[in-house]
Amino acid sequence: MALTKYERRKRIKLRIRKIIKGSEARPRLSVFRSNTDIYVQLVDDLSGKTILAASSRDKGFDKKGNKTEVAKSVGKVIAEKAVSKGIKAVVFDRGGYLYHGRVKSVADGAREAGLEF
Fold first, then answer.
1. Which residues, 6 or more positions from 69, have their beta carbon under 8 angstroms from its beta carbon?
2. What is the CATH number of the domain that holds 87?
C-alpha cells in the first residue's frame, strides 16, 4: 500500500531525528513549512526546550517578495537572534523536506547572518 505524502515525510523525519540531536551549545535548527508560511526554531533536545523561534507570521515581519525570499529572511532573523544570545553553531534539521527551495533558503539566510552548520 502506498504511503500518503504526510506519512512519507513523517518516516523521513524520524529517520533524520535518530541521527541529529541538539544540545545547549549546538542546538538543532528545526524547519517546518506550510503552504503559506515557514517556521524555524532552535531546540535543545537534551532538556527538551525551544531556545528561540522565528516565523514568517511574527509581528513586524515584512513579507516582501516570493516565498523563497521570505524564507531566506526568516533564516537571517533566527541567525541574528541566535548570535545575539551567543549561539554560533547549530545542527540543521530539514524536517523531512527535501533540501531544496524554501528549506535551502532558510539555511542560506542563516549562514549569511553568521550561523555555522
1. 105
2. 3.30.420.100
pTM, full prediction: 0.91
**Burial class of residue 16, CB neighbours in 10 A (0-12, 13-18, 19+):** middle
Q: How many domains does the chain have?
A: 1
117 in a structural domain: no
The helix/strand/coil state of 92 is strand
72-107 residue pLDDT tens = 999 999 999 999 999 999 999 999 999 999 999 999
d(CA 43, CA 96): 16
**Pair 10, 96: CB distance under 8 Å:** yes
Domain extent, residue 98, equals 5-112
Per residue in 11-41, pLDDT (tens digit) is 999 999 999 999 999 999 999 999 999 999 9
Do residues 44 and 30 lie in contact, with contact meaning Cβ atoms separated by under 8 Å? no
